[in-house]
Specification:
The complex is a heterodimer of chains A (267) and B (327).
Chain A: H1 2-20, H2 23-39, H3 50-82, H4 86-91, H5 96-129, H6 135-162, H7 165-192, H8 195-207, H9 217-221, H10 237-264
Helix pairs in contact in A: 1-5, 2-3, 2-5, 3-5, 3-6, 3-7, 5-6, 6-7, 6-10, 7-8
Chain B: H1 2-25, H2 39-46, H3 49-73, H4 88-98, E1 106-108, H5 134-142, E2 152-154, H6 161-170, H7 175-186, H8 190-203, H9 208-225, H10 235-258, H11 275-294, H12 298-308, H13 316-326
Antiparallel strand pairs in B: 1-2
Helix pairs in contact in B: 3-6, 6-7, 7-8, 7-9, 8-9, 9-10, 10-11, 11-12, 11-13, 12-13
The chains are: A mainly alpha (267), B mainly alpha (327).
Chain lengths: 267, 327
Protein backbone atom coordinates (compact mmCIF):
# COMPACT_ATOMS: atom_id res chain seq x y z
CA UNK A 1 0.00 0.00 0.00
CA UNK A 2 2.84 2.32 0.98
CA UNK A 3 4.68 1.39 -2.24
CA UNK A 4 1.61 2.11 -4.32
CA UNK A 5 1.22 5.50 -2.66
CA UNK A 6 4.86 6.28 -3.35
CA UNK A 7 4.46 5.21 -6.97
CA UNK A 8 1.46 7.49 -7.33
CA UNK A 9 3.40 10.43 -5.86
CA UNK A 10 6.24 9.85 -8.33
CA UNK A 11 3.73 9.47 -11.18
CA UNK A 12 2.09 12.74 -10.21
CA UNK A 13 5.43 14.53 -10.20
CA UNK A 14 6.20 13.17 -13.70
CA UNK A 15 2.80 14.32 -14.96
CA UNK A 16 3.20 17.76 -13.40
CA UNK A 17 6.67 18.09 -14.86
CA UNK A 18 5.36 17.14 -18.32
CA UNK A 19 2.57 19.69 -18.04
CA UNK A 20 4.85 22.42 -16.69
CA UNK A 21 7.60 21.92 -19.24
CA UNK A 22 5.10 22.74 -22.00
CA UNK A 23 6.62 20.23 -24.44
CA UNK A 24 3.26 18.51 -24.72
CA UNK A 25 1.60 21.79 -25.64
CA UNK A 26 4.24 22.57 -28.23
CA UNK A 27 3.72 19.15 -29.82
CA UNK A 28 -0.06 19.62 -29.79
CA UNK A 29 0.15 23.12 -31.26
CA UNK A 30 2.55 22.02 -34.00
CA UNK A 31 0.37 19.05 -34.83
CA UNK A 32 -2.78 21.18 -34.97
CA UNK A 33 -0.98 23.76 -37.11
CA UNK A 34 0.03 21.04 -39.56
CA UNK A 35 -3.52 19.69 -39.70
CA UNK A 36 -4.78 23.24 -40.19
CA UNK A 37 -2.38 23.87 -43.07
CA UNK A 38 -3.36 20.64 -44.83
CA UNK A 39 -7.06 21.23 -44.32
CA UNK A 40 -6.79 24.83 -45.54
CA UNK A 41 -5.88 23.64 -49.05
CA UNK A 42 -8.63 24.04 -51.59
CA UNK A 43 -9.74 20.60 -52.65
CA UNK A 44 -11.64 21.59 -55.78
CA UNK A 45 -14.16 23.51 -53.68
CA UNK A 46 -15.42 20.28 -52.13
CA UNK A 47 -16.53 20.28 -48.50
CA UNK A 48 -17.10 17.62 -45.89
CA UNK A 49 -14.15 15.43 -46.87
CA UNK A 50 -14.31 13.49 -43.64
CA UNK A 51 -12.05 10.56 -44.47
CA UNK A 52 -9.24 12.84 -45.49
CA UNK A 53 -9.53 14.77 -42.24
CA UNK A 54 -9.68 11.56 -40.24
CA UNK A 55 -6.58 10.23 -41.95
CA UNK A 56 -4.50 13.38 -41.59
CA UNK A 57 -5.62 14.07 -38.03
CA UNK A 58 -5.35 10.54 -36.65
CA UNK A 59 -1.98 9.84 -38.24
CA UNK A 60 -0.45 13.13 -37.11
CA UNK A 61 -1.96 12.85 -33.65
CA UNK A 62 -0.77 9.27 -33.26
CA UNK A 63 2.78 10.18 -34.28
CA UNK A 64 2.80 13.30 -32.09
CA UNK A 65 1.53 11.41 -29.07
CA UNK A 66 4.16 8.70 -29.55
CA UNK A 67 6.81 11.39 -29.92
CA UNK A 68 5.74 12.96 -26.63
CA UNK A 69 5.88 9.57 -24.89
CA UNK A 70 9.32 8.75 -26.33
CA UNK A 71 10.65 12.16 -25.27
CA UNK A 72 9.30 11.80 -21.78
CA UNK A 73 10.07 8.13 -21.22
CA UNK A 74 13.65 8.18 -22.46
CA UNK A 75 14.41 11.25 -20.34
CA UNK A 76 13.08 10.07 -16.99
CA UNK A 77 15.88 7.82 -15.76
CA UNK A 78 18.96 9.48 -17.33
CA UNK A 79 17.79 12.85 -16.04
CA UNK A 80 17.38 11.54 -12.51
CA UNK A 81 20.96 10.28 -12.64
CA UNK A 82 22.24 13.42 -14.27
CA UNK A 83 20.81 15.92 -11.79
CA UNK A 84 21.27 13.43 -8.95
CA UNK A 85 17.67 13.66 -7.70
CA UNK A 86 17.48 9.88 -7.65
CA UNK A 87 19.76 9.64 -4.59
CA UNK A 88 17.52 11.33 -2.00
CA UNK A 89 14.52 9.49 -3.49
CA UNK A 90 16.04 6.05 -3.18
CA UNK A 91 17.56 6.91 0.20
CA UNK A 92 14.01 7.05 1.51
CA UNK A 93 12.16 3.78 1.81
CA UNK A 94 11.27 3.75 -1.90
CA UNK A 95 12.21 0.59 -3.75
CA UNK A 96 13.57 0.67 -7.26
CA UNK A 97 10.57 -1.22 -8.57
CA UNK A 98 8.24 1.36 -6.99
CA UNK A 99 10.34 4.13 -8.46
CA UNK A 100 10.23 2.59 -11.95
CA UNK A 101 6.52 1.88 -11.66
CA UNK A 102 5.85 5.46 -10.59
CA UNK A 103 7.85 6.82 -13.48
CA UNK A 104 6.02 4.52 -15.91
CA UNK A 105 2.60 5.47 -14.57
CA UNK A 106 3.56 9.14 -14.80
CA UNK A 107 4.58 8.85 -18.44
CA UNK A 108 1.35 6.96 -19.19
CA UNK A 109 -0.66 9.66 -17.41
CA UNK A 110 1.09 12.32 -19.50
CA UNK A 111 0.35 10.27 -22.63
CA UNK A 112 -3.30 10.04 -21.59
CA UNK A 113 -3.38 13.80 -21.05
CA UNK A 114 -1.85 14.41 -24.49
CA UNK A 115 -4.15 11.87 -26.17
CA UNK A 116 -7.22 13.33 -24.44
CA UNK A 117 -6.40 16.81 -25.73
CA UNK A 118 -5.83 15.44 -29.22
CA UNK A 119 -9.05 13.48 -29.21
CA UNK A 120 -11.04 16.49 -28.09
CA UNK A 121 -9.63 18.43 -31.02
CA UNK A 122 -10.30 15.50 -33.34
CA UNK A 123 -13.93 15.17 -32.23
CA UNK A 124 -14.46 18.91 -32.63
CA UNK A 125 -13.05 18.70 -36.16
CA UNK A 126 -15.25 15.76 -37.12
CA UNK A 127 -18.37 17.41 -35.74
CA UNK A 128 -17.61 20.65 -37.56
CA UNK A 129 -17.30 18.69 -40.81
CA UNK A 130 -20.60 16.94 -40.14
CA UNK A 131 -18.98 13.52 -40.21
CA UNK A 132 -19.81 10.30 -38.42
CA UNK A 133 -17.60 9.50 -35.46
CA UNK A 134 -18.10 5.73 -35.17
CA UNK A 135 -18.04 5.89 -31.38
CA UNK A 136 -17.46 2.19 -30.79
CA UNK A 137 -14.39 1.98 -33.00
CA UNK A 138 -13.18 5.38 -31.86
CA UNK A 139 -13.20 4.51 -28.15
CA UNK A 140 -11.51 1.20 -28.89
CA UNK A 141 -8.90 3.10 -30.88
CA UNK A 142 -8.18 5.35 -27.90
CA UNK A 143 -7.90 2.36 -25.57
CA UNK A 144 -5.51 0.56 -27.92
CA UNK A 145 -3.45 3.72 -28.31
CA UNK A 146 -3.07 3.85 -24.52
CA UNK A 147 -1.91 0.24 -24.50
CA UNK A 148 0.58 1.13 -27.19
CA UNK A 149 1.87 4.08 -25.16
CA UNK A 150 2.36 1.86 -22.09
CA UNK A 151 4.31 -0.62 -24.19
CA UNK A 152 6.35 2.14 -25.76
CA UNK A 153 7.14 3.52 -22.29
CA UNK A 154 8.52 0.14 -21.17
CA UNK A 155 10.63 -0.16 -24.34
CA UNK A 156 11.98 3.40 -23.89
CA UNK A 157 12.85 2.75 -20.23
CA UNK A 158 14.81 -0.29 -21.32
CA UNK A 159 16.59 1.64 -24.08
CA UNK A 160 17.47 4.52 -21.76
CA UNK A 161 19.08 2.07 -19.34
CA UNK A 162 21.03 0.36 -22.09
CA UNK A 163 22.31 3.36 -24.01
CA UNK A 164 22.56 7.11 -23.49
CA UNK A 165 19.56 9.42 -23.60
CA UNK A 166 20.02 10.77 -27.15
CA UNK A 167 20.56 7.35 -28.66
CA UNK A 168 17.61 5.93 -26.71
CA UNK A 169 15.33 8.68 -28.01
CA UNK A 170 16.39 8.18 -31.64
CA UNK A 171 16.16 4.40 -31.47
CA UNK A 172 12.83 4.65 -29.67
CA UNK A 173 11.44 6.78 -32.45
CA UNK A 174 12.94 4.56 -35.14
CA UNK A 175 11.41 1.54 -33.47
CA UNK A 176 8.02 3.24 -33.39
CA UNK A 177 8.11 4.35 -37.02
CA UNK A 178 9.66 1.16 -38.40
CA UNK A 179 7.50 -1.29 -36.50
CA UNK A 180 4.84 -1.46 -39.21
CA UNK A 181 7.45 -1.69 -41.97
CA UNK A 182 9.25 -4.51 -40.17
CA UNK A 183 5.98 -6.35 -39.79
CA UNK A 184 5.19 -6.04 -43.53
CA UNK A 185 8.77 -6.88 -44.47
CA UNK A 186 8.69 -10.08 -42.44
CA UNK A 187 5.65 -11.23 -44.44
CA UNK A 188 7.51 -10.72 -47.70
CA UNK A 189 10.83 -12.12 -46.47
CA UNK A 190 9.29 -15.29 -45.05
CA UNK A 191 8.60 -16.66 -48.53
CA UNK A 192 12.07 -15.75 -49.77
CA UNK A 193 14.26 -17.05 -46.99
CA UNK A 194 15.49 -20.51 -45.87
CA UNK A 195 14.43 -22.47 -42.79
CA UNK A 196 16.89 -20.72 -40.45
CA UNK A 197 15.69 -17.34 -41.68
CA UNK A 198 12.10 -18.40 -41.21
CA UNK A 199 12.79 -19.49 -37.66
CA UNK A 200 14.38 -16.11 -36.96
CA UNK A 201 11.43 -14.26 -38.47
CA UNK A 202 9.02 -16.36 -36.42
CA UNK A 203 10.97 -15.57 -33.26
CA UNK A 204 11.19 -11.87 -34.07
CA UNK A 205 7.47 -11.85 -34.74
CA UNK A 206 6.75 -12.89 -31.16
CA UNK A 207 9.69 -11.22 -29.40
CA UNK A 208 9.27 -7.75 -30.90
CA UNK A 209 6.07 -5.92 -30.00
CA UNK A 210 3.90 -5.44 -33.08
CA UNK A 211 2.72 -1.87 -32.65
CA UNK A 212 0.51 -2.18 -35.74
CA UNK A 213 -1.87 -4.28 -33.62
CA UNK A 214 -2.73 -1.21 -31.56
CA UNK A 215 -3.55 0.97 -34.51
CA UNK A 216 -7.25 0.86 -35.23
CA UNK A 217 -7.08 4.18 -37.06
CA UNK A 218 -7.50 2.63 -40.54
CA UNK A 219 -10.89 1.23 -39.60
CA UNK A 220 -11.89 4.52 -37.97
CA UNK A 221 -10.81 6.40 -41.12
CA UNK A 222 -12.64 4.16 -43.55
CA UNK A 223 -15.73 3.68 -41.46
CA UNK A 224 -18.92 4.46 -43.32
CA UNK A 225 -22.34 3.86 -41.83
CA UNK A 226 -23.46 2.10 -45.01
CA UNK A 227 -20.54 -0.33 -44.80
CA UNK A 228 -20.80 -1.03 -41.10
CA UNK A 229 -22.83 -4.18 -41.41
CA UNK A 230 -20.43 -5.56 -43.96
CA UNK A 231 -17.04 -4.53 -42.67
CA UNK A 232 -16.01 -2.24 -39.90
CA UNK A 233 -17.80 -3.30 -36.78
CA UNK A 234 -16.15 -2.56 -33.42
CA UNK A 235 -13.82 -5.34 -32.31
CA UNK A 236 -15.32 -8.11 -30.20
CA UNK A 237 -14.64 -8.39 -26.46
CA UNK A 238 -12.48 -11.45 -27.06
CA UNK A 239 -10.22 -9.62 -29.51
CA UNK A 240 -9.90 -6.63 -27.19
CA UNK A 241 -9.01 -8.96 -24.32
CA UNK A 242 -6.42 -10.73 -26.49
CA UNK A 243 -4.89 -7.39 -27.48
CA UNK A 244 -4.81 -6.28 -23.84
CA UNK A 245 -3.14 -9.56 -22.87
CA UNK A 246 -0.61 -9.17 -25.67
CA UNK A 247 0.21 -5.59 -24.61
CA UNK A 248 0.49 -6.62 -20.96
CA UNK A 249 2.87 -9.46 -21.76
CA UNK A 250 5.20 -7.22 -23.75
CA UNK A 251 4.98 -4.35 -21.27
CA UNK A 252 5.84 -6.73 -18.42
CA UNK A 253 8.65 -8.27 -20.47
CA UNK A 254 10.31 -4.96 -21.37
CA UNK A 255 9.45 -3.45 -17.99
CA UNK A 256 11.03 -6.51 -16.35
CA UNK A 257 14.21 -6.12 -18.38
CA UNK A 258 14.26 -2.42 -17.44
CA UNK A 259 13.91 -3.31 -13.77
CA UNK A 260 16.71 -5.86 -14.05
CA UNK A 261 19.00 -3.28 -15.68
CA UNK A 262 17.99 -0.61 -13.17
CA UNK A 263 18.70 -2.92 -10.23
CA UNK A 264 22.15 -3.72 -11.52
CA UNK A 265 22.93 -0.09 -12.01
CA UNK A 266 25.34 1.23 -9.39
CA UNK A 267 24.30 4.47 -7.77
CA UNK B 1 13.31 36.18 -17.14
CA UNK B 2 11.14 38.81 -18.76
CA UNK B 3 13.77 39.60 -21.35
CA UNK B 4 14.08 35.89 -22.22
CA UNK B 5 10.35 35.66 -22.66
CA UNK B 6 10.35 38.78 -24.81
CA UNK B 7 13.14 37.33 -26.92
CA UNK B 8 11.25 34.07 -27.34
CA UNK B 9 8.10 35.94 -28.31
CA UNK B 10 10.04 38.07 -30.79
CA UNK B 11 11.64 34.96 -32.30
CA UNK B 12 8.24 33.31 -32.62
CA UNK B 13 6.78 36.41 -34.32
CA UNK B 14 9.73 36.56 -36.68
CA UNK B 15 9.31 32.89 -37.49
CA UNK B 16 5.61 33.32 -38.24
CA UNK B 17 6.34 36.38 -40.40
CA UNK B 18 9.04 34.50 -42.34
CA UNK B 19 6.71 31.53 -42.81
CA UNK B 20 4.04 33.89 -44.14
CA UNK B 21 6.42 35.52 -46.62
CA UNK B 22 7.69 32.14 -47.79
CA UNK B 23 4.16 30.76 -48.11
CA UNK B 24 3.17 33.76 -50.25
CA UNK B 25 6.16 33.43 -52.52
CA UNK B 26 6.46 29.70 -52.88
CA UNK B 27 4.17 27.76 -55.15
CA UNK B 28 4.95 24.06 -55.15
CA UNK B 29 3.65 23.87 -58.70
CA UNK B 30 6.57 25.98 -59.86
CA UNK B 31 8.56 22.82 -59.58
CA UNK B 32 9.21 21.56 -63.08
CA UNK B 33 11.00 18.34 -62.28
CA UNK B 34 9.57 14.95 -62.70
CA UNK B 35 10.20 12.53 -65.43
CA UNK B 36 11.72 12.80 -68.86
CA UNK B 37 11.79 10.36 -71.70
CA UNK B 38 14.99 11.94 -72.94
CA UNK B 39 17.93 10.28 -71.16
CA UNK B 40 20.17 13.31 -71.53
CA UNK B 41 17.61 15.67 -70.01
CA UNK B 42 16.90 13.22 -67.24
CA UNK B 43 20.58 12.89 -66.39
CA UNK B 44 20.99 16.68 -66.35
CA UNK B 45 17.98 17.11 -64.11
CA UNK B 46 19.03 14.37 -61.74
CA UNK B 47 22.42 15.91 -61.05
CA UNK B 48 20.86 19.06 -59.57
CA UNK B 49 21.20 19.49 -55.82
CA UNK B 50 17.47 19.77 -55.25
CA UNK B 51 16.74 16.78 -57.42
CA UNK B 52 19.25 14.81 -55.42
CA UNK B 53 17.69 15.87 -52.17
CA UNK B 54 14.02 15.91 -53.05
CA UNK B 55 13.41 14.74 -56.60
CA UNK B 56 12.99 11.03 -56.07
CA UNK B 57 11.32 11.58 -52.75
CA UNK B 58 8.67 13.78 -54.36
CA UNK B 59 8.05 11.29 -57.13
CA UNK B 60 7.95 8.47 -54.59
CA UNK B 61 5.51 10.41 -52.45
CA UNK B 62 3.14 10.89 -55.40
CA UNK B 63 3.27 7.17 -56.11
CA UNK B 64 2.55 6.41 -52.47
CA UNK B 65 -0.45 8.72 -52.53
CA UNK B 66 -1.64 7.11 -55.74
CA UNK B 67 -1.54 3.72 -54.02
CA UNK B 68 -3.41 5.22 -51.12
CA UNK B 69 -6.25 6.12 -53.47
CA UNK B 70 -6.52 2.42 -54.32
CA UNK B 71 -6.96 1.68 -50.62
CA UNK B 72 -9.62 4.38 -50.36
CA UNK B 73 -11.55 2.86 -53.24
CA UNK B 74 -11.59 -0.45 -51.39
CA UNK B 75 -12.81 1.01 -48.09
CA UNK B 76 -9.37 0.71 -46.53
CA UNK B 77 -8.50 -2.82 -47.65
CA UNK B 78 -5.00 -3.07 -49.11
CA UNK B 79 -4.62 -5.37 -52.06
CA UNK B 80 -1.28 -6.50 -53.42
CA UNK B 81 -0.91 -4.24 -56.37
CA UNK B 82 0.94 -2.06 -57.67
CA UNK B 83 0.25 0.87 -59.80
CA UNK B 84 -3.14 0.70 -61.44
CA UNK B 85 -2.65 1.13 -65.14
CA UNK B 86 -5.87 2.75 -66.23
CA UNK B 87 -5.55 5.07 -69.18
CA UNK B 88 -7.76 8.13 -69.53
CA UNK B 89 -9.73 6.38 -72.24
CA UNK B 90 -10.27 3.21 -70.22
CA UNK B 91 -11.46 5.27 -67.30
CA UNK B 92 -13.86 7.07 -69.61
CA UNK B 93 -15.24 3.77 -70.85
CA UNK B 94 -15.89 2.91 -67.26
CA UNK B 95 -17.91 6.06 -66.87
CA UNK B 96 -20.35 4.71 -69.43
CA UNK B 97 -20.48 1.30 -67.84
CA UNK B 98 -20.32 2.12 -64.17
CA UNK B 99 -21.09 5.73 -63.53
CA UNK B 100 -24.62 4.98 -62.45
CA UNK B 101 -23.52 2.02 -60.43
CA UNK B 102 -20.58 3.57 -58.64
CA UNK B 103 -21.40 4.54 -55.17
CA UNK B 104 -21.48 3.24 -51.68
CA UNK B 105 -21.92 -0.45 -51.24
CA UNK B 106 -21.05 -1.16 -54.80
CA UNK B 107 -20.09 -4.78 -55.13
CA UNK B 108 -18.91 -5.71 -58.57
CA UNK B 109 -17.09 -8.72 -59.87
CA UNK B 110 -15.31 -7.23 -62.83
CA UNK B 111 -14.96 -3.49 -62.69
CA UNK B 112 -11.94 -1.96 -64.35
CA UNK B 113 -12.08 1.24 -62.27
CA UNK B 114 -10.95 -1.06 -59.53
CA UNK B 115 -7.37 -1.96 -60.22
CA UNK B 116 -7.49 -5.15 -58.22
CA UNK B 117 -9.97 -7.75 -59.46
CA UNK B 118 -11.41 -10.36 -57.06
CA UNK B 119 -8.83 -13.00 -56.22
CA UNK B 120 -6.06 -10.43 -55.91
CA UNK B 121 -4.24 -11.20 -52.66
CA UNK B 122 -4.39 -8.71 -49.81
CA UNK B 123 -1.29 -7.18 -48.24
CA UNK B 124 -2.22 -8.78 -44.94
CA UNK B 125 -2.19 -12.44 -45.94
CA UNK B 126 -5.11 -14.84 -45.65
CA UNK B 127 -5.04 -17.24 -42.66
CA UNK B 128 -3.67 -20.11 -44.75
CA UNK B 129 -0.75 -18.07 -46.02
CA UNK B 130 0.20 -16.29 -42.80
CA UNK B 131 3.04 -17.72 -40.73
CA UNK B 132 2.32 -15.43 -37.78
CA UNK B 133 -0.49 -17.47 -36.21
CA UNK B 134 -2.04 -15.63 -33.25
CA UNK B 135 -0.54 -12.27 -34.26
CA UNK B 136 -1.72 -12.68 -37.83
CA UNK B 137 -5.26 -13.34 -36.59
CA UNK B 138 -5.19 -10.18 -34.49
CA UNK B 139 -3.73 -8.20 -37.38
CA UNK B 140 -6.59 -9.23 -39.66
CA UNK B 141 -9.08 -8.14 -37.01
CA UNK B 142 -7.51 -4.77 -36.23
CA UNK B 143 -6.72 -3.62 -39.76
CA UNK B 144 -9.25 -3.41 -42.60
CA UNK B 145 -9.01 -6.85 -44.14
CA UNK B 146 -11.34 -8.80 -46.38
CA UNK B 147 -11.21 -12.28 -47.79
CA UNK B 148 -9.57 -11.80 -51.21
CA UNK B 149 -12.02 -14.22 -52.84
CA UNK B 150 -15.02 -12.11 -51.87
CA UNK B 151 -16.18 -9.36 -54.24
CA UNK B 152 -14.52 -6.06 -53.50
CA UNK B 153 -16.32 -3.28 -51.77
CA UNK B 154 -16.08 0.02 -53.58
CA UNK B 155 -16.69 3.45 -52.21
CA UNK B 156 -17.42 6.52 -54.27
CA UNK B 157 -14.39 8.48 -55.47
CA UNK B 158 -15.14 11.74 -53.70
CA UNK B 159 -12.84 11.11 -50.75
CA UNK B 160 -9.92 10.35 -53.05
CA UNK B 161 -9.84 13.83 -54.50
CA UNK B 162 -7.71 15.55 -51.83
CA UNK B 163 -4.96 13.02 -52.51
CA UNK B 164 -4.99 13.81 -56.23
CA UNK B 165 -4.81 17.49 -55.35
CA UNK B 166 -1.81 16.98 -53.07
CA UNK B 167 0.04 14.56 -55.33
CA UNK B 168 -0.15 16.97 -58.28
CA UNK B 169 0.76 19.95 -56.11
CA UNK B 170 3.81 18.09 -54.93
CA UNK B 171 4.75 16.79 -58.35
CA UNK B 172 3.10 18.70 -61.24
CA UNK B 173 4.68 16.24 -63.67
CA UNK B 174 2.64 13.40 -62.21
CA UNK B 175 0.41 12.82 -65.25
CA UNK B 176 -1.35 9.81 -63.78
CA UNK B 177 -2.57 11.99 -60.92
CA UNK B 178 -4.19 14.44 -63.32
CA UNK B 179 -5.68 11.70 -65.48
CA UNK B 180 -7.22 9.67 -62.66
CA UNK B 181 -8.03 12.76 -60.59
CA UNK B 182 -9.99 14.38 -63.41
CA UNK B 183 -11.91 11.15 -63.89
CA UNK B 184 -13.11 11.09 -60.28
CA UNK B 185 -13.62 14.83 -60.20
CA UNK B 186 -15.85 14.87 -63.26
CA UNK B 187 -18.29 12.66 -61.36
CA UNK B 188 -18.66 15.63 -58.99
CA UNK B 189 -18.15 18.63 -61.21
CA UNK B 190 -17.21 18.62 -64.90
CA UNK B 191 -16.06 22.24 -64.94
CA UNK B 192 -13.68 21.69 -62.03
CA UNK B 193 -12.37 18.55 -63.70
CA UNK B 194 -11.68 20.57 -66.82
CA UNK B 195 -9.80 23.17 -64.80
CA UNK B 196 -7.76 20.40 -63.20
CA UNK B 197 -6.77 18.91 -66.55
CA UNK B 198 -5.91 22.38 -67.85
CA UNK B 199 -3.68 22.90 -64.85
CA UNK B 200 -1.96 19.66 -65.81
CA UNK B 201 -1.60 20.88 -69.39
CA UNK B 202 -0.01 24.11 -68.20
CA UNK B 203 2.72 22.11 -66.53
CA UNK B 204 2.89 19.38 -69.15
CA UNK B 205 1.89 20.98 -72.46
CA UNK B 206 3.28 18.11 -74.52
CA UNK B 207 1.64 15.23 -72.75
CA UNK B 208 -0.75 13.51 -75.13
CA UNK B 209 -2.74 11.73 -72.42
CA UNK B 210 -3.90 14.96 -70.83
CA UNK B 211 -5.37 16.03 -74.17
CA UNK B 212 -7.31 12.77 -74.24
CA UNK B 213 -8.59 13.55 -70.73
CA UNK B 214 -9.70 17.00 -71.85
CA UNK B 215 -11.31 15.63 -75.00
CA UNK B 216 -13.31 13.17 -72.91
CA UNK B 217 -14.57 16.00 -70.74
CA UNK B 218 -15.49 18.06 -73.82
CA UNK B 219 -17.44 15.10 -75.14
CA UNK B 220 -19.24 14.84 -71.83
CA UNK B 221 -20.10 18.54 -72.06
CA UNK B 222 -21.50 17.93 -75.52
CA UNK B 223 -23.69 15.16 -74.16
CA UNK B 224 -24.83 17.45 -71.37
CA UNK B 225 -26.20 20.04 -73.81
CA UNK B 226 -27.69 17.71 -76.39
CA UNK B 227 -27.57 14.38 -78.15
CA UNK B 228 -24.52 14.01 -80.40
CA UNK B 229 -26.26 11.16 -82.23
CA UNK B 230 -28.92 13.47 -83.67
CA UNK B 231 -28.03 15.04 -87.01
CA UNK B 232 -27.79 17.86 -87.81
CA UNK B 233 -25.89 18.60 -84.64
CA UNK B 234 -27.17 21.39 -82.42
CA UNK B 235 -24.75 24.38 -82.50
CA UNK B 236 -23.73 23.95 -78.86
CA UNK B 237 -23.15 20.23 -79.28
CA UNK B 238 -21.09 20.90 -82.39
CA UNK B 239 -19.07 23.52 -80.53
CA UNK B 240 -18.05 21.06 -77.79
CA UNK B 241 -17.47 18.22 -80.23
CA UNK B 242 -15.19 20.41 -82.33
CA UNK B 243 -13.15 21.21 -79.26
CA UNK B 244 -13.03 17.52 -78.34
CA UNK B 245 -11.94 16.59 -81.88
CA UNK B 246 -9.18 19.22 -81.75
CA UNK B 247 -7.95 17.81 -78.48
CA UNK B 248 -7.94 14.24 -79.78
CA UNK B 249 -6.14 15.43 -82.89
CA UNK B 250 -3.53 17.32 -80.86
CA UNK B 251 -3.12 14.29 -78.67
CA UNK B 252 -2.67 11.98 -81.65
CA UNK B 253 -0.03 14.24 -83.19
CA UNK B 254 1.88 14.46 -79.88
CA UNK B 255 1.55 10.71 -79.50
CA UNK B 256 3.17 10.16 -82.91
CA UNK B 257 6.28 11.88 -81.57
CA UNK B 258 6.66 9.72 -78.50
CA UNK B 259 5.20 6.32 -79.39
CA UNK B 260 8.04 3.87 -79.98
CA UNK B 261 8.24 2.11 -83.34
CA UNK B 262 8.08 -1.34 -81.77
CA UNK B 263 5.03 -1.85 -79.60
CA UNK B 264 3.90 -5.42 -78.96
CA UNK B 265 0.33 -6.67 -79.17
CA UNK B 266 -0.20 -6.12 -75.46
CA UNK B 267 0.67 -2.44 -75.90
CA UNK B 268 4.12 -2.50 -74.33
CA UNK B 269 7.21 -0.98 -75.91
CA UNK B 270 10.66 0.38 -75.13
CA UNK B 271 11.23 3.53 -73.04
CA UNK B 272 8.55 2.73 -70.50
CA UNK B 273 5.72 2.65 -73.03
CA UNK B 274 2.89 0.55 -71.64
CA UNK B 275 -0.67 -0.48 -72.26
CA UNK B 276 -1.60 2.51 -70.12
CA UNK B 277 -0.12 4.79 -72.80
CA UNK B 278 -1.17 2.72 -75.77
CA UNK B 279 -4.87 2.68 -74.86
CA UNK B 280 -4.87 6.47 -74.96
CA UNK B 281 -2.84 6.50 -78.16
CA UNK B 282 -5.46 4.31 -79.84
CA UNK B 283 -8.25 6.47 -78.43
CA UNK B 284 -6.61 9.65 -79.71
CA UNK B 285 -6.18 8.28 -83.23
CA UNK B 286 -9.57 6.62 -83.42
CA UNK B 287 -11.63 9.37 -81.85
CA UNK B 288 -10.08 12.17 -83.89
CA UNK B 289 -11.30 10.31 -87.00
CA UNK B 290 -14.68 9.35 -85.55
CA UNK B 291 -15.44 12.87 -84.39
CA UNK B 292 -14.31 14.35 -87.71
CA UNK B 293 -16.88 12.12 -89.44
CA UNK B 294 -19.52 13.07 -86.90
CA UNK B 295 -18.79 16.71 -87.65
CA UNK B 296 -19.24 16.00 -91.37
CA UNK B 297 -15.60 16.69 -92.05
CA UNK B 298 -15.05 13.55 -94.14
CA UNK B 299 -11.99 14.86 -95.97
CA UNK B 300 -10.12 15.41 -92.69
CA UNK B 301 -11.39 12.05 -91.40
CA UNK B 302 -10.00 10.24 -94.45
CA UNK B 303 -6.70 12.11 -94.26
CA UNK B 304 -6.27 11.30 -90.58
CA UNK B 305 -7.30 7.68 -91.05
CA UNK B 306 -4.69 7.39 -93.78
CA UNK B 307 -2.10 8.85 -91.45
CA UNK B 308 -2.86 6.69 -88.41
CA UNK B 309 -3.67 3.40 -90.12
CA UNK B 310 0.06 2.63 -90.31
CA UNK B 311 0.18 2.53 -86.52
CA UNK B 312 -3.14 0.86 -85.87
CA UNK B 313 -4.02 -1.22 -88.93
CA UNK B 314 -6.82 -3.08 -87.16
CA UNK B 315 -8.61 -0.10 -85.65
CA UNK B 316 -12.25 -0.31 -86.89
CA UNK B 317 -12.87 3.45 -86.80
CA UNK B 318 -9.90 4.09 -89.12
CA UNK B 319 -10.90 1.31 -91.51
CA UNK B 320 -14.48 2.56 -91.60
CA UNK B 321 -13.32 6.08 -92.45
CA UNK B 322 -11.13 4.79 -95.27
CA UNK B 323 -13.90 2.59 -96.66
CA UNK B 324 -16.31 5.53 -96.56
CA UNK B 325 -13.76 7.66 -98.40
CA UNK B 326 -13.34 4.95 -101.07
CA UNK B 327 -17.08 4.84 -101.65
Amino acid sequence: MHDMRCAMVIAKSVLLEAVRRKEVYVIIILCCALIGVVMSLDFFGLHGLVKFYREVALQLMGISCALAVILLATRQLPREFEIKTIYPLLARPVGRLTFLLGKGLGVCAAAAFCLALFMLIYVAGILSLGGDLAWGLFLQHIYLQMLQMALLTAVCFMLSLLINYDAAMVIGFLFYSASGILSSASLVLYDLTNNAGRALLWLANYALPQLVLFDLSKKVIHYEPALRAELWRPLSFGIMAALTFYALCHTLLYGGVSYYLFRRRAL
Amino acid sequence: MKSTLALQAAAACLGVACAGVIAMRVDPRDYTGGRYRDEEQRARRNTGAFALMLGEFRTGLSDMMFMKTDRYIHAGVSYVQHHPVMSAHELAEDVHEHQDELGLHDFCDECSVCSAPPGTPTLIPSPGKDFRGFIGRLHRQVQPWRDPDKPHIHTDGRELLPWFRIMTLGDPGYIRGYVAGSFWLQLEDTERALEFVEEGLQHNPDDFQLYVSRAILRTKQARMVGDPAIQPLAPEVRHYLEMARDDYLRSAELMLRVRPAEVDEAGFGPGGWSRYHDADAIAAAGMSVTLSRLLDDHVTAARLAQRYIRLFPDLPSLRAALEAADE
